[in-house]
Write a structure and sequence with these properties.
heterodimer, A: alpha/beta, 5-stranded mixed beta sheet, 4 helices, 36% helix, 26% strand, B: 5-stranded parallel beta sheet, 22% helix
């Protein structure tokens, strides 16, 4: 089975997100070290990834180090979260949200 | 539904709430912090230079330390959103969307949230060129053109930050002078790539799938112009979101919680103290929205809760260092 949480970058995004999402949904967390709210979201989403035990893969992309994908997906605010299924974005949101909101979002889309 | 019982529940996990939690936990009170985030507005500051003991510290780092210190003494933190507080005989029931907690005392310390522009395009372009967090999003606007709206310290701070990365920054403010610190204003004036658009308001945000421009109306001439921008940073201040506490405690004309010098709240319809509910920080009518002020008020609220739970009537607060 794929890892529950993984780091992705410009070079492996196609394989680890686009291709992988054809088997199991991939939730991409776009973040950066300078972004305070990213840490809050990151701890909530990481906890949920463990709770959901492989129902989705959490992929973390550092926007600072990966300008190509950041530009391609027009990331203009972080934290930004997108769910990929069958190689496409099916839903997304921006900003840190409470755990129950994140859960509702996952349940709606998984 | 699960019901857990606490001595004190603190609503909000920013400077006031986390300091209160540290004080109540150190007094061995069973303490829960219910919060949507850690650090509130403070976490959005890249440089905090006026918190004593730190020459320059980033908001996230400082707030992480507040959190660790509260947890170290046993405060429990749950990331959840309080929806309702129901008074019951000598107790309160605190409800989130999924859980219910019982507590003997409450400290309201949920701060303020970013004020919105409420103009056409604002909802449509959320995350597509509109930002409420310059420290998060400024680096994503390298060599782009952006507009900052507002006239206070946060607008000036955002303009300075953006001027380092963006090609051009328009600073749009409805008055012809700024409310922020003079030192800040002077620094902004020195920047060649910041252009002032004063006595003006933004009336619409335009674009296709991302922001492409804004409409700006000059209040003196009534003329409206379109400015091409890639991003809009909203820094027009903060509001208390009072829905959860309306009918519970007294609010002032700005929806801030009215407190006395002991951080006690009042009933909404009379000038009588509401026992068991305390408040601290930016959500209250205490002057000066500063991290150090919020932390100080949080400490006061924590100590007052201790006195309240021990039935100390109108007494002096016992100093914290007497506790071993």
């Amino acid at each position: 089975m794929d890892k529950i949480e993984t780091e992705v970058d410009d070079s492996n995004f196609q394989k680890k997100v686009i291709e992988a999402s054809k088997k199991v949904p991939v939730v991409v967390d776009f973040w950066a070290v300078w972004c305070g709210p990213c840490y809050i979201l990151s701890s909530i989403i990481g906890k949920l990834a463990n709770e959901y035990k492989g129902k989705f893969v959490l992929a973390k992309l550092n926007v600072d180090k990966n300008p190509r994908i950041t530009k391609e997906y027009q990331i203009m605010s972080i934290p930004s979260v997108k769910m990929f299924k069958d190689g496409k974005v099916i839903d997304e949101f921006v900003g840190a949200v409470p755990e129950h909101v994140m859960k509702e979002w996952l349940d709606k889309n998984l | 539904m699960l019901t857990e019982e606490y001595d004190v529940i603190i609503v909000g996990g920013a400077p006031a709430g986390l300091t209160a939690a540290m004080y109540t936990a150190r007094r061995m009170l069973h303490t829960l912090v219910l919060t949507k985030d850690i650090g509130g507005q403070a976490i959005l500051s890249k440089h905090v230079c006026n918190y004593p003991g730190f020459l320059n510290v980033s908001g996230p780092v400082l707030m992480k330390r507040f959190q660790k210190q509260a947890e170290r003494y046993g405060a429990e933190i749950i990331f959840d959103e309080v929806k309702q507080i129901v008074p019951e005989a000598m107790e309160y029931s605190v409800k989130t969307p999924t859980k219910e907690f019982r507590t003997k005392a409450i400290i309201l310390a949920f701060g303020k949230t970013s004020r919105r522009l409420n103009i056409p395009g604002e909802d449509k372009f959320q995350g597509r060129g509109i930002s409420y967090c310059a420290s998060c999003d400024a680096p994503l606007y390298k060599n782009k053109t952006v507009a900052v709206v507002g006239g206070g310290n946060s607008a000036l701070d955002a303009s300075l930050l953006l001027s380092e990365v963006a090609r051009k920054v328009y600073l749009i403010h409805r008055r012809d002078e700024f409310r922020g610190f003079e030192a800040f204003v002077e620094e902004v004036k020195k920047k060649k790539n910041i252009e002032f658009v004063l006595s003006s308001i933004m009336t619409e945000i335009k674009g296709d799938n991302v922001v492409r421009g804004i409409l700006v109306k000059n209040l003196k001439t009534n003329e409206t112009n379109e400015i091409a921008v890639d991003g809009v940073f909203v820094e027009i201040g903060y509001d208390v979101e009072p829905d959860m506490i309306r009918g519970l405690v007294k609010l002032d004309q700005y929806n801030q919680i009215v407190v006395n010098e002991k951080c006690q709240t009042l009933y909404p319809d009379k000038n009588e103290i509401r026992p068991g509910i305390f408040a601290a920080g930016d959500a209250t009518n205490v002057l000066f929205k500063q991290i150090v002020v919020a932390a100080g008020e949080g400490a006061k609220a924590g100590l007052q809760v201790y006195n309240y739970l021990h039935g100390v009537k109108d007494s002096q607060i016992v100093s914290d260092w007497t506790k071993k």
